[in-house]
């Protein structure tokens, strides 16, 4: 079945540094990728929708200059957390939707646990 | 806007017990409804879905029926196993017809099955 690979699975960084998270669709082309953030014991909150070759659409309240999203190809989207702070520590999950039918299912990556010290 | 409400957890059951996890939603139009499961340290996996009223989604012994009149999509399983221990998320998509866009999720219900 369709697989979405997310890397790294876990990262620890110092406050003020930037961290890049990759989301790859391994056996299908993804026109649209979604980035979610999940706080402990909370639901997934959609942060942004990324379409290949165009700017990402951010949800209300998400700082686009802090969470940079690039979707340069049909198989790769990246989320860069810039100048990370401890409050950015969270579980980030991407999902991808295939080309073609809008009934294409959504496939999730395994998530990235970010800890900012 | 769209919203999903599901029962608070954790839900602790003994093996072979009957499971119900309630889910109700608020949405405009005719959303598609989903249940996702998240095992420890992993991403979400689609468990089942329903795209229109009265549809029943089923998978791995789990099932849920899209009830438009009660705006509900309760998850049920007749006999749970220890391996079913996970967090279960109810979700809806804003489009009708089965498309899964940026989904709206409930808060998740942590299910613990004891042997």
Give the topology.
The complex is a heterodimer of chains A (117) and B (115).
Chain A: E1 4-7, E2 10-13, E3 19-25, E4 30-38, E5 44-51, E6 57-58, E7 67-73, E8 76-81, E9 90-98, E10 106-108, E11 112-116
Parallel strand pairs in A: 2-11
Antiparallel strand pairs in A: 1-3, 3-8, 4-5, 4-9, 5-6, 7-8, 9-10, 9-11
Chain B: E1 3-6, E2 11-14, E3 19-21, E4 23-26, E5 32-38, E6 44-50, E7 56-59, E8 62-65, E9 75-77, E10 86-93, E11 104-105, E12 109-114
Parallel strand pairs in B: 2-12
Antiparallel strand pairs in B: 1-4, 3-9, 5-6, 5-10, 7-8, 8-9, 10-11, 10-12
Overview of the molecule:
The complex is a heterodimer of chains A (about 120) and B (about 120). Chain A has about 120 residues and is mostly beta strands. Helix content of chain A is about 0%, strand content about 55%. Chain A has strands at about 5, 10-15, 20-25, 30-40, 45-50, 55-60, 65-75, 75-80, 90-100, 105-110, 110-115. In chain A, the strands form two sheets. In chain A, strands 2, 4, 5, 6, 9, 10 and 11 form a seven-stranded mixed beta sheet that branches. In chain A, strands 1-3-8-7 form a four-stranded antiparallel beta sheet, with no helix packed on it. Chain A is globular. By secondary structure, chain B is mostly beta strands. Chain B has strands at about 5, 10-15, 20, 25, 30-40, 45-50, 55-60, 60-65, 75, 85-95, 105, 110-115. The chains are: A mainly beta (about 120), B mainly beta (about 120).
In short:
With 117 residues, chain A is mainly beta. Chain A has strands at residues 4-7, 10-13, 19-25, 30-38, 44-51, 57-58, 67-73, 76-81, 90-98, 106-108, 112-116. Chain B has 115 residues and is mostly beta strands.
